[in-house]
């Protein structure tokens, strides 16, 4: 092992956090292919055992951003609904459906995502079943964003340097620092994020990292029923991050003017079932799945300033689905 990795592993093993700069340089070495597998595995496991820190997350994100393939655009407001995953809730792809409905409401969207890791179905998996091309290169993704106001940024395609750590991550088979980085490294540089997290600790850490990395405004959410989405089963804790700092509050189903919906009613066993649920929602089928997408979209519309009232945003989201605009937006992505 090189001296820098040995020193960092020893430091983390002793319970001391790495600095932002130190982490950034080590992740650079990994993504440049300059670190051997033992160094990568040793550092990732040491950080996991210690517990990843905000400065480490920020440093890693800055390094990963330097290595990603960027998507050019001219949108002053650009939304991403990518979350960290890891809740184990087993729901259909709520944030993917929310991204499509938000785009149908006139919000520019660059949905970042990947294939499933800790869930039954990842955003790339469900979009593929829905007939949306996911393997597009950067130029095609940029054209899609310009043409349709929404694009899918496939992490496996637009973060090519991750190939240098992929085998180690698969072999480890546990969550590591890299599992938190997806939402912090949107290839199109999203200005607004509706970002779901699986635990209160992760929510706080990611929100503090975003506060340092900077976005125009982000809602980092965690539902108290365990979902990494805006939930209608109970309260959703929100950390609202903008240039002025961070504010924390809660939403309940009544804030949206919607009925409660249990997590069990949102279950999808695989990408095919998730895709079927999304199609039914866009066809106008009522029920808890639709209501949950409406609530998530309402949060996104509030986030980007389409409206300053959550119930008004809820009505706009529902109207957009009922009018067929969400279905049409999905169709445009399939072409």
TrEMBL record:
Mg(2+) 2 binds at residues 228-229. Residues 7-68 form the Glycosyl transferase family 3 N-terminal domain. The keyword Iron does not apply. It catalyses: N-(5-phospho-beta-D-ribosyl)anthranilate + diphosphate = 5-phospho-alpha-D-ribose 1-diphosphate + anthranilate. Residues 77-326 form the Glycosyl transferase family domain. It holds the Pfam family Glycos_transf_3. Binds 2 magnesium ions per monomer. 5-phospho-alpha-D-ribose 1-diphosphate binds at residues 83, 86-87, 91, 93-96, 111-119, 123. Mg(2+) 1 binds at residues 95, 229. Anthranilate 1 binds at residues 83, 114. It is an enzyme of class 2 (transferase). It comes from the Bacteria. Keywords: Amino-acid biosynthesis, Aromatic amino acid biosynthesis, Glycosyltransferase, Magnesium, Metal-binding, Transferase, Tryptophan biosynthesis. Its cofactor is Mg(2+). Catalyzes the transfer of the phosphoribosyl group of 5-phosphorylribose-1-pyrophosphate (PRPP) to anthranilate to yield N-(5'-phosphoribosyl)-anthranilate (PRA). This is Anthranilate phosphoribosyltransferase. The lineage of its organism: Bacteria, Pseudomonadati, Planctomycetota, Planctomycetia, Pirellulales. The gene is trpD.
């Amino acid at each position: 092992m090189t001296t820098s990795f040995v020193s960092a592993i020893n430091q983390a093993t002793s319970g001391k956090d790495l600095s932002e700069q130190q982490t950034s340089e080590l992740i650079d070495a990994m993504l440049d292919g300059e670190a051997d597998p033992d160094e990568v595995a040793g550092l990732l496991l040491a950080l996991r055992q210690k517990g990843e820190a905000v400065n480490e997350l920020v440093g890693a994100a800055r390094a990963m951003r330097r290595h990603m393939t960027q998507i050019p655009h001219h949108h002053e407001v650009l939304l991403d609904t990518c979350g960290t995953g890891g809740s184990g809730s087993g729901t259909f792809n709520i944030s993917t459906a929310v991204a499509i409905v938000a785009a149908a409401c006139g919000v520019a969207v660059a949905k970042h995502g990947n294939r499933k890791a800790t869930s039954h179905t990842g955003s790339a998996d469900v979009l593929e079943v829905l007939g949306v091309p996911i393997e597009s290169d950067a130029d095609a993704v940029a054209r899609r964003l310009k043409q349709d106001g929404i694009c899918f940024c496939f992490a496996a395609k637009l973060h090519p340097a991750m190939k240098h750590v992929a085998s180690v991550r698969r072999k480890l088979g546990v969550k590591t620092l890299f599992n938190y980085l997806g939402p912090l490294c949107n290839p199109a540089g999203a200005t607004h994020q509706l970002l779901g997290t699986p635990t209160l600790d992760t929510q706080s850490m990611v929100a503090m990292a975003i506060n340092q990395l900077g976005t125009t405004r982000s809602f980092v959410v965690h539902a108290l029923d365990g979902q990494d989405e805006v939930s209608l089963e109970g309260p959703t804790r929100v950390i609202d991050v903008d240039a002025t700092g961070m504010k924390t509050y809660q939403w309940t189903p009544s804030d949206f003017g919607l009925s409660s919906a249990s997590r069990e009613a949102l279950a999808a066993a695989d990408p095919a079932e998730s895709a079927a649920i999304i199609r039914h929602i866009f066809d106008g089928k009522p029920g808890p799945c639709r209501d949950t997408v409406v609530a998530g979209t309402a949060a996104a519309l509030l986030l980007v300033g389409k409206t300053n009232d959550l119930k008004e945003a809820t009505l706009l989201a529902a109207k957009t689905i009922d009018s067929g605009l969400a279905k049409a937006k999905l169709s445009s992505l399939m072409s």
